[in-house]
Amino acid sequence: MTEIIVADVNLNSICERLEQNCCVDQNQQNLVSSQPQTPVLKRHSNTGAKLWGRVRSKLLRQKLDPQTVQSKNWHMDVIEMNGIKVEFSMKFTSRDLSLKRTPSKKQSGVFGVKINVVTKRERSKVPYIVRQCIEEVEKRGIDEVGIYRISGVATDIQALKLAFDTNTKDILMMLSDMDINAIAGTLKLYFRELPEPLLTDRLYPAFMEGIALSDPAAKENCMMHLLRSLPDPNLMTFLTLLEHLKRVAEKEPINKMSLHNLATVFGPTLLRPSESESTKGQHITSASDIWSHDVMAQVQVLLYYLQHPPISFAELKRNTLYFSTDV
């Protein structure tokens, strides 16, 4: 019997491993034909997909069960089919906890540390972690189907997080050997764990108002002015990420990641305000509705910039000087 323990992996990545196990067992049956035979269970070629379909269904049923969702304990289960056994454990974390921005107590790392602190320490315009993850994704992951949408293995992401936080000397070797979805996941995690969003708490209400403007000229002026208002490290990092995501979207026929898909993945990550800001003026009874409305607006903000012609840092700064001297 083949036993696969599922821990800290995304649901899509396991099917391939299940199918590989089927193929290995069938090949072993052919190799031992000249030796005394022991019964070998024949498996259908799509066993992995069918089995994982059952796992998905089980997870969905548990997610919809109020008792399971409210429990803080791990729930263990086993599903078996054609000699393959999948054992998995799961628990659910509330949206508020999973999206909470928590500043790091150690300012020597990069995760949970303000972006201006990191760039000042590195003497760089864009954090090293952002530059290296983008470079690796463009090198060997830009054609990957579902890049940035499909999660990487959580243990791999945590290993990369630790390496960047401790400035491990073999980080480049780790990146070259690591699954590309783990690298993409590390980049998303970095932005998600910033103490305040990349586009800042201070400007968040203005971004929400700007994207809602109906007049195209007024919206253009407002959205560009907001970019000019960002601190330099935030602006440089945002523009770097923006151009990268546009290059990813150029490969949409291959990777299936459109500008809208990328905006959906990154919008809330780059804009979602810190806890203190997000709870101001909200009533508990309508928190869910407000959250959903805000997420849609966050996606639209990033999509606006993704669909905009190339934005130059130097040009934005020249316009800043023009406006300040004109006044």
From TrEMBL:
Coiled-coil stretches: none
CDD domains: RhoGAP_Bcr (cd04387)
Residue ranges annotated for the Rho-GAP domain, each copy included: 113-313
Domain of life: Eukaryota
InterPro entries, A to Z: Abr/Bcr, Rho_GTPase_activation_prot, RhoGAP_dom
Protein name: Rho-GAP domain-containing protein
Pfam families: RhoGAP
Molecular function terms from GO: GTPase activator activity
One GO CC term, this protein: membrane
GO biological process: signal transduction
SUPFAM superfamilies from the UniProt entry: GTPase activation domain, GAP
Organism from which the protein derives: Knipowitschia caucasica (Caucasian dwarf goby)
